[in-house]
Amino acid sequence: MENINSLEDRFHHQIDNEVKIEARDWMPDAYRKTLIRQISQHAHSEIVGMLPEGNWITRAPSLKRKLALLAKVQDEAGHGLYLYSAAETLGIEREEMLNQLHSGKAKYSSIFNYPTLSWADIGAIGWLVDGAAIMNQVPLCRCSYGPYARAMVRVCKEESFHQRQGYEILLTLCKGSIEQKEMAQDALNRWWWPSLMMFGPNDDASPNSAQSMKWKIKRFTNDELRQRFVEMTVPQAAILGITIPDPLLKYNQETGHYDFGPIDWEEFNQVVAGNGPCNKERLEARIKAHDDGAWVREAASAYAEKQKNKKEKSVA
Ligand code: FAQ
């Protein structure tokens, strides 16, 4: 008992003093569990997030646009890999996490259950979805768990390229023909509210936030980050010359912040429960990609085995 107390004291001492918790360190079960939950949901979001954009690689309007989109989607696969690896340091197998995703038991970000109907949607995803991801993920570079925090440094650098890539697509469309500008407006109309939902439920309805803040996994609450995102995005929409679809969005002189209209949490809950416009399609595409990739995993394992045998023979 005394030993457990001292281990627990050391854990809290590390958290209080901003010393990263590493895989080898003792940690409370609930801390480990919450990290596995958050990191695996994050990893799932990255690899499911490849799908709405992947649809547009062959339809991107120029070679330059194709290359940039291809690179972005590849980055997202990489983010999934860093994140699954970070979660594995906590004692869960990648296969188990993927089984949870494919069986529909694990969550991934609600945002990826919406359709990409036009090229402007690829701009809106980069601008808004990656913009929201940066807002939420830069503080995760200071997360108390070392492997997650370190993975997030590179992820955030890449997200910032993604955000610029998306904004530049929209800037080009907004400087183009009337029809192109209308496409950009239509994309903003459809992606604005789902992007605000990405930050998760309001603080009073967020069961995990308080404990995760105490453990310094999260540094800001869902509402704080959502507000920051609104502050950052409103002037960017003004530069594009398109209108955020919220009649209640207004600068509040007294608080110095933007007030915005109510979020449709019923829609959010439906999407998270599996009833969004594309949940079924996304999961099917993900499972197919996994099944189609089985031969690659088998070949990689066979090669690794061969190399291992070779090495053992040369030592003997
Ligand atoms: N969608 O108590 P909280 C990206 C769930 S990556 C679905 O507030 P927490 C890159 C939540 O899991 C985007 N479910 O939870 C990219 C919890 O469920 P549980 C993903 C959601 O963990 C860009 C329940 O609601 N980013 O975009 C959502 O403290 C472009 C109660 O919520 C991350 O994962 C949602 N939006 O805070 C890729 C970042 N929100 O498990 C391709 C890391 C909440 O209790 C293209 N994660 N839920 O049953 C986080 O920062 C946190 O996990 C939050 C949620 C903020 C997402």
What overall geometry do the principal axes of the alpha carbons give?
A: globular
Please compute the radius of gyration using only Cα atoms.
21 Å
Compounds present?
A: Phenylacetyl coenzyme A
Instruction: Extract low-pLDDT stretches.
Output: none
DSSP strand content: under 5%
Description:
By secondary structure, the protein is mostly helical. It has helices spanning 2-16, 29-54, 63-88, 94-102, 119-137, 146-174, 178-197, 209-214, 222-240, 265-275, 279-292, 294-315, and strands spanning 250-252, 257-259. A two-stranded antiparallel ribbon has the order 1-2. Helix 2 (29-54) packs antiparallel against helix 3, helix 2 (29-54) crosses helix 11 (279-292) and helix 3 (63-88) packs antiparallel against helix 6. It is globular and about 75 Å long. The relative contact order is 0.11. The model has no long low-confidence stretch (mean pLDDT 96). The structure holds Phenylacetyl coenzyme A. Residues 37-38, 41-42, 45-46, 49, 76, 107, 109-110, 125, 129-130, 133, 136-137, 197-201, 206-209, 212, 218, 222, 272 line the site of Phenylacetyl coenzyme A.
